Amino acid sequence: MSAIRVRPTGAVLGASVQGVDLRGLDSETFAAIHRAWLDYQVLLFTDQELTDEDLVAFSRRFGNLDQAPVQ
């Protein structure tokens, strides 16, 4: 597990998540992120360099994705 740090923003919702690379998460680190998401509802991940494919792969770990409407 990476040295993940979750720091609440002090607002009603939200936390900053640091010390994690979203491109290669083990199940224990993802479980910590998922717990933080349940606790804070909005998470800010800093210092990430994700491709579109990386972002989709990370997002799919939370469940099925909806297609954005084309305008």
Characteristic key phrases:
single chain; 71 residues; alpha+beta; 15% strand
Give a brief outline of the structure.
The chain is of the alpha+beta class and 71 residues long. It has helices at 27-40, 52-60, and strands spanning 5-8, 15-18, 43-45. The chain has one domain.
How do the strands line up in the largest sheet?
1-2-3
> What is the 3D shape?
globular
Task: Give the strand content.
Answer: 15-25%
| Low-confidence segments | none
Q: Note the main sheet.
A: 3 strands, mixed
SSE blueprint and pairings:
Elements (H helix, E strand, L loop, with lengths): L4 E4 L6 E4 L8 H14 L2 E3 L6 H9 L11
Parallel strand pairs: 2-3
Antiparallel strand pairs: 1-2
Could you characterize the architecture of this molecule?
The structure is a single chain. The protein is of the alpha+beta class and 71 residues long. The protein has one domain (5-60). 32% of the residues lie in helices and 15% in strands. The chain has two helices and three strands, in the order ββαβα. The protein is globular. The N and C termini lie far apart (41 Å).
